[in-house]
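Budget justification aside, the reviewers requested a transparent look at the raw inputs and outputs of the sequence design task funded under Objective 1. We therefore reproduce one unedited record. The lines immediately below are the structure tokens for a 149-residue chain.
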């Protein structure tokens, strides 16, 4: 009896995950959405599409070394959020200087640039030998969010 309840709970959990995010083939994405992505990112390759909370999410790569991108697009073609992988050296100098000052001895890893409307933020991990944090900062290096990892 317990085994059936556990199995039922697992099946329910897996089925509800699909209700929130659905992988979809590109031919089921509205043309205006696909065109918006292609115009903004003409070199996008290996595009995977999902439908999440009414937004189309495209995950893809660009460039020779396969820079990762995630873009959220409304059904009218408007891009509302773009997250892209960055090298640590591509962070604004102000951010790097502030992190070295506020977190001496830490290294910066897994850098992402997030653009929503006209607002840009940077998300990354900072690590020392014994400590690890996830940070979100503005272009001047001011911490907007901080969570121990």
């Amino acid at each position: 009896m317990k085994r059936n309840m556990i199995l039922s709970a697992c099946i329910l959990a897996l089925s509800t995950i699909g209700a929130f995010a659905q992988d979809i083939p590109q031919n089921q994405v509205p043309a205006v959405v696909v065109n918006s992505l292609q115009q903004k990112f003409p070199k996008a390759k290996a595009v995977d599409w999902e439908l999440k909370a009414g937004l189309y999410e495209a995950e893809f790569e660009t460039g020779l070394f396969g820079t990762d991108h995630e873009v959220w697009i409304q059904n009218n073609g408007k891009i509302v959020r773009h997250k892209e992988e960055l090298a640590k050296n591509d962070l604004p100098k102000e951010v790097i200087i502030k992190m070295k000052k506020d977190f001496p001895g830490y290294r910066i890893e897994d850098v992402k640039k997030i653009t929503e409307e006209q607002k840009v933020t940077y998300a990354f991990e900072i690590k020392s030998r014994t400590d690890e944090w996830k940070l979100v900062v503005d272009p001047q290096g001011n911490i907007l969010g901080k969570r121990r990892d």
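Residues 33 and 77 are 4 Å apart (CA to CA). The domain at 87-148 is CATH 3.10.450.40 (Nuclear Transport Factor 2; Chain: A,). Computational costs for records of this kind are itemized in the attached budget.
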